[in-house]
Amino acid sequence: MESRVDFHDGARRLVAAARPTIENVLVLQRTDSTHAGALRLIEQAETEEIILPTSLVIAVEQDQGLGRAGRTWISPAGGLYLNWITASLDPQIIAQLPMVAAAAAHEALSRLGVEDLVVKWPNDLLVDGRKLAGVLVHARHGATKWVTVGIGINLDHAPVIDGHGTARTIAVADLVAAGDFWSWAETIVAILADELHRGAAHPDEHIARWRECLHHRPGMEIVIRRGDGSQTRGRYAGLTDEGHLRLDVDGDEHIISTGDVVE
Q1: Residue 71's pLDDT band (boundaries 50, 70, 90)?
Q2: 239 and 179 together in one domain
Q3: What is the average per-residue pLDDT within 54-64?
């Protein structure tokens, strides 16, 4: 386990990397989840009626990492886990943030040197069919429209998922020869902070990148798992203007707005 001195030095580097666009940055060595931490900050801001600027919560280990559809995101030491928090975005842009965030993560990892990186609809990042990173967006509507974007990236090693060993996961360390945990994390945080800031203001470029990076092709047979656990098999038929998936099921087109591609 790294020393507190090493962690504090690394944390200072991450704060400096984010600061050009993010005023409030919190770096934790270990937490329950950055998603839960983000929601606590939002709750505190609302309860105490304080102004919370665009913020970033970062951790290098989580006990209760959260993935899509309430699933656990395995979050051992050696990963980079973060939640970006902002308020008062237009509802249309909030709806586009899952695409914007995936494009931002793709840009950061590509500039780090990761090759053959693709997006599995809607926003998992894969190399050779193995998961490298994932995105989770949560919006909270009320007097203030809050949104938090969670991103988890395997840096030092690929964790075990669902008892399948590391066959379904991969890490930056498996793909990029030069660098170490803190240099990778510093680069990723700097790029993500800038890309999310720009994408939230002008999302079109990021959405176009997201579409280009999808590895699904027309006619590809896929299986969609919905939030209730049910599955639908069909052929990929493209995307709607909103980024929803068009699925050809025996000649009938289904529009899938939420779910996961599992095959």
Answers
A1: low
A2: no
A3: 90
Same domain, 200 and 231: no
The boundaries of the domain holding residue 244 are 221-261
Closest-CA residue to 199 (of 111, 110, 132, 99): 99
Q: What's the pTM value of the predicted model, to 2 decimals?
A: 0.91
Q: Taking residues 248-262, report their average pLDDT.
A: 92
Query: Sign of the CA dihedral 106, 109, 115, 116?
Result: negative
Query: What residues contact 251, with CB distance under 8 A and at least 6 apart?
Result: none
- Whether 99 and 139 map to the same domain: the answer is yes
Judge if 150 and 28 occupy the same domain.
yes
pLDDT band at 214; cut points 50, 70, 90: very high
Considering the domain architecture, whether residues 178 and 256 belong to the same structural domain is answered as no
- Per DSSP, the residues of 88-144 read ---HHHHHHHHHHHHHHHHHHHHHHT--SEEEETTTEEEETTEEEEEEEEEEE-SSS
Residue 231: CATH number of its domain: 2.30.30
Q: Is there a single domain that holds both residue 204 and residue 225?
A: no
Query: What are the residue ranges of helices labelled H in the chain?
Result: 4-18, 34-48, 91-112, 172-175, 181-201, 204-213
How far, in Å, CA of 94 to CA of 138, rounded? 9
Domain match, 16 and 44 both? yes
Query: Is residue 180 exposed (0-12), middle (13-18) or buried (19+ Cβ within 10 Å)?
Result: exposed
